[in-house]
Design a protein that fits this description.
alpha+beta; 2 domains; 21% strand
């Protein structure tokens, strides 16, 4: 498969749709956790958490995940899709011998038109190895050789 800006747009749209669905589910779960926390379950001096305290703690964890997803959505929406990139940088979609990577969102892989695309952060070690490389460049990461075939 040859990469194109249209495929990149579809991949980003699929990432966004997937993350928006996850965010909706998390927000619904958080509302349910808070609603289920009953006011009269509060323990004042107990070492054991009350049901309410546990539910509020779990709701807080959902908030952390929601915040992460919201940041990843911002990154995805900021990626330019009007011009082919010449080197590996934030926002690039890359085809290598070992897979397809979108630089920016730290998101698990999605499938677009039968192609698996993995989102990797611009802070990740694998990105640091390929940063600024161009088409046909090779690099090694975790005992694997990567060859960059295309960048858009």
């Amino acid at each position: 498969m040859t990469l194109s800006l249209d495929f990149k747009k579809r991949a980003i749209a699929t990432f966004i749709k997937t993350l928006e669905g996850q965010l909706q589910n998390l927000n619904a779960g958080q509302r349910a956790e808070i609603t289920d926390a009953e006011e009269d379950d509060i323990d004042s001096n107990s070492l054991v958490e009350s049901t309410r305290e546990q539910r509020l703690f779990e709701a807080g964890q959902l908030t952390d995940r929601s915040d992460f997803i919201s940041r990843e959505l911002e990154i995805l929406r900021s990626i330019q899709t009007h011009e082919v990139m010449k080197q590996v940088e934030k926002g690039a979609l890359i085809r290598t011998n070992l897979g397809f990577f979108l630089i920016g969102p730290a998101v698990e892989h999605i499938t677009v038109e039968g192609v698996t695309v993995t989102g990797i952060s611009d802070q990740s070690p694998v990105y640091k190895k390929m940063e600024s490389l161009k088409k046909k460049a090779e690099f090694h990461f975790e005992n694997r050789e990567y060859i960059i075939f295309e960048i858009v």
